[in-house]
Every structure is written in C-alpha cells, then in structure tokens.
Write a sequence for this structure.
C-alpha cells in the first residue's frame, strides 16, 4: 500500500501546486480587468481634455475675439477642465451607485488648487514633487488595501505647464477678471512654466473583479480536482491490474503447479534468507527437514503417472493440514520435499516429522500404504546454504540406507 499512498501524496502535491498557480492567475485576471477599466477611464479623460482644449476653448476664445463674449468672461463650467472632469465624475458615480456598480475614486490633486476639493494630501504632494524632480517619470501604480477592500491605485501627472497655461496660472494680472473675482488672486496662480501642477489620482476597487475571478477559480479548481481524481483512479486501477499480474507471475515462479506448495526456486531464496537471519540474530534456531516417498517410482510404473501425481497432491495436502505457521513446505524434485522450520530446534523438527508419519498411517492408494523417509538437521553457525543442504541430504540418505520409513538426523558434516 505504500506506493498507493505515495501516489496520493504526489497527486495532492500536484493539486496544491496547480491551486497556487490558479490562485495567482485569478488574482492577475482581477488586476488585468481593473487595468482595462483604468485604460478606459484614462482614454475618456484624455478625450475630454482634448475636446476642451482643442474644440471647446477655441470656440470661447473666438467668440471673445468676435466680441460676442466680453474679454473678461470666465466660467469654469466651460473653461476649467478640472471643474468639468470633477463634475462628470460626480454624475458618473451617482449613476454607478444606482446600478449597484463599484465606484471609483477620482481626483485631480494639486499643490495650489483653486477649489480646495482638489488639494493634494501628503502622499499626493510627495508624488507631485517626485514627478517634478524626475524621480518618477510616467506613472505610479500599486495595489492598496483600505478598510478591508483592495484597490488598484493609479497616479499620473498632468501635462506640465505650457505657455498657453500661464495666462490662467501665472500672474493674476494676466488672467480674466472673472477668474480672479471667483477664485481670488492666490490659489492656482504664480506657477512656473513646465511645472507639473497636478496629478490624476484614480482608485479602482478590485472586489468585483476578485469575486468574478474567485468564482472562476473555484470552478476551474473543481474541474482540476475531478480530472486529477479521474487520472488517479485510472492509474490506481491500472496499478492494481499490474500488481495482480505480478502476483500471478510471482506465484507461477515460486509455486509448484501440481501440488500448490512452494518450489525449488522459492526454497533456495527462503533458505538463503533464513541463514542470513540466523547470522543477524533474527532467528534463534533454524532446522531443515527433507523427505521423499518410498518406492515412488514403483507406484508410477505400476499405476501410471496420474496416480503418482495424486499421491504427491495428497501428501502435500496432508502436510499443510498439520503444519504450524513456523513451517514452510517445498517440492524440490520429483518426489522430494523440503521443510524449513523457523525458531525450531532439532528435537521439535523431528517431532513434526513424526506427526507427518503418524498422519500418513491411514493413507492408502490402490490398497497400498505410502511411507516417507526423512532427513533432519539443525543450522550451526559455520553452516552456509550448500553445507546445510548436504547435511540434510546425507541424513535422508541414511534413512534410505536404514530401511526407509524412518527419520535420521545429522548435526555435523
């Protein structure tokens, strides 16, 4: 199960990574959408400024030159871009409020404004100074948070004073008298040529865009989760099939196909591992027994191989029935078997062989009894695989020499 748990960890890590990237991208989408709104506002602002300066004011000046308007005429409703822009913003805000749209903050902040609503705060004053000193060149933009709401703050300087600006922002003596009458001779005057007198300050709330981005984020994240889950299940099922095939292959490689007990390949591997466990102190005793069927060839010759096969199957079934969890049975040859005993002394291993002999007393085939010859030995510190195998094989040889149907032991070789 470890590899399946590892697969879960991998998919969970991939999901977290994708979620993090999606979250970052969704916030980026909100900022992008707000930038689009900002560009729209700036385009309108630029268009309005261009209209007032290039179309509306020239008409006023022409009317003055044609004496259709008196020379000192000044009305901020038609001649002050700041006044017009602020009032358009007020009207727009009222419309947005009625339609429950998010309101933007708009201000033309100046160091010496005629209308005190436009007076720059300390932060705005600092930025105007930085624009004039060239520390800031084109614009200032950042994400800010006020009262738990995030905003995109954008600040851009207005065009620096041109010669045409100085009539209304230079010496008040040169300004229209009605301008001085309305605003006095201090505010908005005595500015220098090429001086940046104001900045456009815009704050756009990000909440609407963030909410939209969050909805899409949750939908996409759910789709990603389901997709990853589906991929995981496909891989899981595929791995399960592979595991089952591997188990089948392992069984075919280690199990004797006729009797169902372990085969010679498995015996070699298990005995080698058992000896290593003894050397490392994992087992306090290791015994080994071998047995074969007495006169088995005679049964095969007289009754045929199917009868021989049945004898092998029946003996394995009998041994497995009385085996303890510490014992494992192997078929290592035609009628030759091995038993590995973990944590079992020589005496107990011999007792187990005697139990097998006893249980076989009642077994007959074609009216004939079946007997087994046993060789038993116990692992000694100097033993390796080959030596231990020879010891138990010699013990079996002694059993055959001593008349069969007996148990012989060998501790030394």
């Amino acid at each position: 199960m470890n590899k399946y748990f590892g697969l879960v960890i991998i998919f969970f890590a991939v999901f977290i990574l994708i979620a993090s990237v999606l979250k970052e991208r969704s916030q980026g989408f909100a900022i992008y959408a707000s930038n689009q709104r900002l560009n729209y506002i700036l385009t309108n602002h630029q268009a309005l400024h261009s209209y007032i300066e290039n179309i509306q004011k020239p008409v006023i000046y022409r009317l003055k030159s044609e004496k259709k308007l008196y020379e000192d005429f000044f009305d901020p409703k038609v001649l002050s871009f700041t006044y017009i822009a602020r009032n358009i913003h007020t009207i727009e805000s009222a419309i947005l409020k009625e339609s429950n749209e998010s309101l933007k903050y708009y201000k033309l902040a100046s160091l010496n404004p005629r209308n005190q609503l436009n007076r720059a705060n300390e932060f705005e004053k600092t930025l105007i100074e930085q624009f004039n000193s060239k520390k800031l060149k084109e614009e200032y933009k950042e994400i800010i948070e006020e009262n738990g709401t995030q905003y995109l703050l954008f600040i851009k300087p207005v065009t620096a004073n041109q010669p045409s600006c100085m009539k209304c922002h230079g010496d008040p003596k040169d300004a229209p008298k009605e301008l001085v009458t309305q605003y006095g001779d201090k505010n908005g005057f005595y500015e220098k040529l090429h001086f940046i007198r104001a900045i456009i300050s815009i704050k756009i709330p990000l909440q609407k865009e963030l909410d939209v981005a969050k909805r899409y984020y949750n939908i996409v994240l759910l789709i990603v989760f389901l997709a990853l889950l589906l991929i995981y299940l496909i891989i899981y099922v595929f791995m399960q099939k592979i595991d089952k095939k591997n188990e089948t292959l392992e069984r075919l490689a280690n199990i004797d196909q006729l009797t169902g007990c372990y085969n010679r390949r498995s015996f070699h591997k298990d005995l080698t591992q058992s000896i290593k466990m003894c050397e490392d102190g994992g087992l306090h005793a290791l015994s080994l027994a071998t047995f074969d069927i007495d006169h088995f060839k005679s049964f095969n010759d007289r009754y045929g191989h199917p009868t021989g096969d049945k004898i092998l199957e029946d003996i394995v079934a009998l041994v497995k029935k009385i085996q303890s969890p510490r014992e494992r049975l192997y078929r290592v040859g035609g009628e030759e078997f091995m038993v590995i005993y973990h944590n079992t002394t020589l005496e107990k291993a011999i007792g187990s062989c005697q139990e097998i002999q006893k249980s076989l007393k009642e077994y007959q085939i074609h009216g004939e009894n079946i007997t087994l010859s046993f060789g038993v030995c116990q692992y000694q510190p100097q033993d390796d695989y080959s030596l231990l195998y020879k010891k138990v094989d010699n013990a079996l040889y002694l059993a055959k020499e001593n008349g069969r149907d007996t148990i012989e032991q060998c501790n030394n070789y």
